[in-house]
Amino acid sequence: MTRMIERWFPCAEVSDACSESWGSGNTESSLWVWFAKRPVAQAKAAVLTSLLPWPDDEAEQRDLQDLVRRALKGHTDGADEIQAILEQEYGRIPRVLDPFSGRAMIPLEAGRLQAEAFGIDYSPFAALGGSLLADLPFRDWSREPSLPFQKTDGALPLEGDTDRIVTDVETFLQEVGRRFRESMAEFYPTSAGAYPWGYLWASTLPCQECGRRFPLVGELELRRPRPKKGDSGQSFRIHADPSTGTCEALVHDGPPIGTPTRVQAGKSKYSADGRVAVCPFCDHVHSKAVHTRLSAEGMREDMLLAAADIDPEDKTKVFRQPTDRELSAAKQAAAALENEPPFGLMPARPDELIAAGNTRTIQSVNYGDRTYGDMCEARQTLGLVRLARAINEVTQECLKAGVSTDYARTLAGYATAAMMRKIRRSTRGARLQKAGGAQVGDIFVNQSAVSFSYDWFESGLSSGPGSWESLSKQTVTALRNIRQRASALPASIQRGSATTLPFRPNWLDAVVTDPPYDDMIDYSDSSDVFFVWAKRAMSTADPMLSMTTHPGGVQDKAEEIIVKRGGGPAGDHRTREHYDSSIARAFAEARRVVTEDGVVTIVFGHGDLEVWHRLLSAISAAGLILTGSWPAKTEAGGASATAANIVTTLTMACRPAPPDRREGRLASVEAQVRAEVKSRVELWDRSGLAHTDMLMASAGPAMEVTGRYSQILDVTGDVVGLERFLIVARKAVQDAADIKVVSLPLDSFDARTRFALWWVRLYGRQMAPKSELRWQVLAGDLDMGDVKNLLHQGDKGCRLLTAKEFKGAITPGSSVIDVAFAMAKSWPDGLDAVAEVLVDAARDNDDEYLWSAIAYLANRLPEGEADVAAWNGLQRSRRGVDVAARNIASAQIHTSREAAEKGHPTLW
């Protein structure tokens, strides 16, 4: 049975839905801290098209396509019809597995399609989060006894309540919050009868000149002004008192009037000099190397700078100097932390070591942190300890009241989820964020790297951003919305390895997965900062969570399939070779457990062409054949839209390779690829697939054809690499689409010119996201060096260069597009200047490719542009350019002969 995904995928509909509220997956992803967020629209489309058949009848094909398009308009559209088709097709509930399930978006959507879904992840932290999303919300908990706590609004949860789990989670979180606040109240004194929103801290270091300690702060503004409301904002300055040798932060209205103690030394924040630290007592400058060394040697001490209250009238965050009582309470918290009892065999303060090689992932390692318990200041750490203890206490009382162990684990899990999101805005990496009103910044500002800062913000006991009350409400809201969006069969989520799947052969109808992308994310290393706290919070509810074979007490790393960034010097085993061999084994396991007519669907996105080629090699080594390849803008509109990375991912369908494949011959296989792509282009065109998407989709039929053979040999008997057939397939798309540059096929131009003309066809002179540059380079089987100096890149994206911006030197080896730019740039200087370009390029007036490209550019780019005027002028003056070029060439020949006769050969 051919599956739909092998012939068609709703690329445009997925791209659109991923930017909408329901399809983005923002609600689902808000439940748990994880680093990869697969939009639910893409997950739903991948599962749906992997299960649905592709009928032979064209009318039936169109009907199924319309049904899928309708299903991507929301969670419940077309659900009954889809379920009926799947029941008829399989005669039972279909089975779907994601062996790299992460936060379990794919198993969730499989369950929403009423499929039997399974999810496996190597990280126990991810597996816990996945169960909270795709499994536990959809179980029947109606037989559980009432919780032994009363909600703060006085309402008791009712037996058999249809939304029982939401009610009980809310009650559980409220009780945890009550106990947490009571246990920490003495360390957070109230101000005007209310708890402050939070506190600004900084690390201090001793000056290497005068010996006095001073705080390292890089910014003095606390709150941005609001002119329309007559609010001038707030800032602070560092006041150093030489007589006492002490510093304090003085809060004032208006913009900063002083100078930070950390200032930029070089022209760029990325320069090697970085920020230097200037002593406010003696003005001694400490280079980045010096203050980093002092910090790494354990010389840092924490200093409370300012407190922030919430104005009861307009909810504005108002900053002030901390009171003596607040300063004393912070010190008392440090003393109390030393006396906290352990969680079983685990000390209260995490002592798990941060492994070597994590300087890029856990950035505070560079500044002296050695354990995960070092990452917070003492009061933050005490708060997390007391919060984890409150979760355990409430869990224990639920068990005493007769709640089942599964339900107690569920409730504790959602409380831990809220705690993990609190940690995400804790540690010394949580900066004060002023945009959009004062907020607590996220510690992940660079993908999965946990940031560090000398100055940071600590949330208090209020109901403001980053507080337990705020985070627990968000958890309940997310859970309620997930349950209300669509019913689902509970998925089975467990911890395990993708290389040893616990399923018998040929048992699953589809494997749909979003595997790790080479070195893009250090999943376990980054999530260990959460794991060490999660296993403490869950020590009563799930003691197995803390079980690990890692000697450092963190998550296992032995079989994690990534390339460890920065792990080389530390001798980390997660190398490129480890990744390539392991991902191939994982794909082979997927092939083993899927039915003979099933598919293995792989969602993948990476900006490095080499990684794509390595992935294809892994698919082939696993005994799979790629049969479909479908691009979609799954991250469009996000923060990465203007970054030079891939926001477009491929959804690729593979099926088990047939046994006893014979060898193929190059010429025959190339002909088959061209014929297959041509037939698919007709379907894709009928289905409305854009030409730019057809280029990437062509990989499917190309690999399907090549997969019929054990290997493909050229006329000399050498094995031909798969990459060759990707190029053949892309050329076949352009041939089938009959894209002409005047009268010449686009594919007949040199690669650099072909890229530029294709870019003009897609975007003209409009600004496009930088991610599209990398995507189109990838689609053209090029690298970034091949298209250098063709596009102008700015903060908001990239666009085609203007001729005035072109800086390339023209030689006989220059591409057509470079010569065309250089000629337009020289046009204002007259025909002789243009003719010199033509001569330097060793081209003449009869060069059909050059003049066709010039005509194409003039027709495709906006009228009125200087470049268009130049190219139109060149076409009108083509004869004059030819005459001038001949004259210049003749003069050069004459000069060369004279020099030769005088014994002075020239370069001509």
Automatic annotation (TrEMBL):
<dbReference type="InterPro" id="IPR029063">
    <property type="entry name" value="SAM-dependent_MTases_sf"/>
</dbReference>
<keyword id="KW-0489">Methyltransferase</keyword>
<keyword id="KW-0808">Transferase</keyword>
<protein>
    <submittedName>
        <fullName>DNA methylase</fullName>
    </submittedName>
</protein>
<dbReference type="GO" id="GO:0008168">
    <property type="term" value="F:methyltransferase activity"/>
</dbReference>
<dbReference type="InterPro" id="IPR009537">
    <property type="entry name" value="DUF1156"/>
</dbReference>
<dbReference type="InterPro" id="IPR002052">
    <property type="entry name" value="DNA_methylase_N6_adenine_CS"/>
</dbReference>
<dbReference type="GO" id="GO:0032259">
    <property type="term" value="P:methylation"/>
</dbReference>
<dbReference type="Pfam" id="PF06634">
    <property type="entry name" value="DUF1156"/>
</dbReference>
<feature type="domain" description="DUF1156">
    <location>
        <begin position="8"/>
        <end position="60"/>
    </location>
</feature>
